[in-house]
Amino acid sequence: MARGKDIDGSMSVPTFYGKELRWQREAAGLSLEAFLEGIFFGKTYLSDIERGERRMPIELARHADRVLKTDGFFERHCEDVRKARRGAHAAYFEKVLEAEKYAECIEEWCAAVFPGLLQTAPYARALVRSAHPAALDEWVEAKVAARLARARLFEDDHSTPEYWAVLHESLLTDPILPPPEMAEQLDRIVELAERRRITPQIVPRTCGPFPLMAASIKVMTFPDAPPLIYIESSYSGDTIDDPALVKQYRKAYDRLRAVALSPDTSLAMIKAAAEDYRNGKQPDRLE
Asked: Is 219 helix (H, G, I), strand (E, B) or coil?
């Protein structure tokens, strides 16, 4: 079979690893389709890995070693590629940072803070500073800039994922910023919703017990790879791809969305809260 255009493996650890994968695949005479037989990943996904644009999941690395008879090479070095850091994000977030760019749909539930993809600079800065009170200003600003850069995916019409954010009412009524900055934060969500980039829903504080009360999660689905769940706490995070757990979280998220207010009602609440903050008022809580 014909060999593809050469890849510069010196650019980064992922490109070196991807170049080796493609060399081994082509040396074995396998097309992308033939290589992927027996595993649920698409051609585009594999091609992105070979160009160093995506990290290889461990199950695909093991598949490569089986098919190409590479004696565990790709499994052994999969962790090295995962550790190849990108920017100012925490190491545990690297897999999610990449996954967001390729997701077909992203669904988030946040009870305590607005999701990172929706945060303004003042809001992100307040959160980073609260978690790292002794950090240098330059370090904090690098974290803030990296977080804001993730939201660029809402600006590309061709790759914007479908995005749902289920938020607790307390995010509207219990401010962590001065009123003008809270208004700015809520205006950002309204702007994205009115541009049809996101769909926000509010879980009212009066709804009683509800699914996922003790967790904040992100559900990501892809056109060419299995779904992924991300759960996070203050200083750690974890991705989950076990099919049984993914299914359980998926069902819980759907039940949570069922108890939330409709998108139209939720957006009206967010707009009203933003206006209250602009006028120096405390937004009313639902009774």
From this structure: strand
Coil, strand or helix at 140:
helix
Mean pLDDT on 34-56: 84
Cα 174 from Cα 172, distance rounded (Å): 6
In sequence order, which residues have a C-beta less than 8 Å from that of residue 235 and are 6 or more positions away? 131
Give the number of other CB atoms < 10 A from CB of residue 127: 20
Tens digits of per-residue pLDDT, 256-283?
Answer: 999 999 999 999 999 999 999 999 888 8
What residue ranges in the chain does DSSP mark as E strands?
Answer: 105-110, 162-168, 199-203, 217-221, 228-232, 237-240
* Residue burial 60-72, b: 16+ Cβ < 10 Å; e: rest: bbbbbbebbebee
Structure pTM? Answer: 0.73
**Among 286, 284, 271, which Cα is nearest to 183's?**
271
Q: What angle do CA 31, 41, 75 make, to 5 degrees?
A: 85
For residue 87, how many other CB atoms are within 10 A of its CB?
Answer: 12
SS3 helix, strand, coil % of the chain, rounded to 5?
A: 50, 10, 40
140-166 residues labelled b (16+ CB within 10 A) or e (exposed): bebbbebbeebbebbeeeeeebebbbb
